[in-house]
Amino acid sequence: MGYPLPRASAGPSPTRRAALVRQVRWFVAATITYNIVEAVVAITAGAHASSTALIGFGLDSVIEVASAAAVAWQFSGPDHQRRERTALRIIAVSFYALAAYVTVESVRALFGADRAEHSTLGLILAAVSLAVMPVLSAAQRRAGRELGSASAVADSRQTLLCTWLSAVLLVGLAANALFGWWWADPLAALVIAAVAVTEGRAAWRGETCCAPGVDDGCDDGCCTGGERS
């Protein structure tokens, strides 16, 4: 799926643009702060419970920090439009890295390696992330679309992917704890890995078209324009 941006003829005023840049910076800072805490908690809880899913979720948080840092770097100076493509490439590589790790660990889990024990802390973390991440993603995506920044929108997509991973983690940990269905998490994680590859490809290409059949907030089926280098 692509990253829908505003039409070139409907760009924001200089005052509004400055406000949007400040918003993106704030959202990125909030994302980085939350994901650092999330990574520490998830990796610690995962190591204690021998949970591959929790450790993978923590490493996903590290990748999310890298993605948000790329956008923070882009908007750290007045020439943020010129840094667009580099930021997109960094985000794309982080998507691919996430997909590779999740795939490898999911296959290992399916073949019986490192079956997780019950983790109350992991369940709480997944539930909190499931509540927090959609809010951050939606807010940054709106600001990025109005600003015309493909990298800001791409980073919001990765935050949304973290939301899906939170749901997968929550379902997997709950199913394992309640029913002993250890295979539920790695199977769902493989689906998330496929989505990550799709998002990484779109970010690498800098695509701005809306996905067919998906209500992405576009006026028509595909948006044009957007500030790209």
From TrEMBL:
Pfam families for the chain: Cation_efflux
Limits of the Cation efflux protein transmembrane domain: 31-199
Compartments in which it is found: Cytoplasmic vesicle, Secretory vesicle, Synaptic vesicle membrane; Early endosome membrane
Primary residence: membrane
UniProt keyword annotations, A-Z: Cytoplasmic vesicle, Endosome, Membrane, Synapse, Transmembrane, Transmembrane helix, Zinc
Transmembrane segment boundaries: 26-47, 53-75, 87-104, 119-139, 160-184
Entry keyword Ion transport: no
Entry annotated with the keyword Lipid biosynthesis: no
Entries under Gene3D superfamilies matching the protein: Cation efflux protein transmembrane domain (1.20.1510.10)
Highest taxon above the source species: Bacteria
Record's bilayer topology term: Multi-pass membrane protein
Family statement: Belongs to the TMEM163 family.
Protein name as it appears in the record: Cation transporter
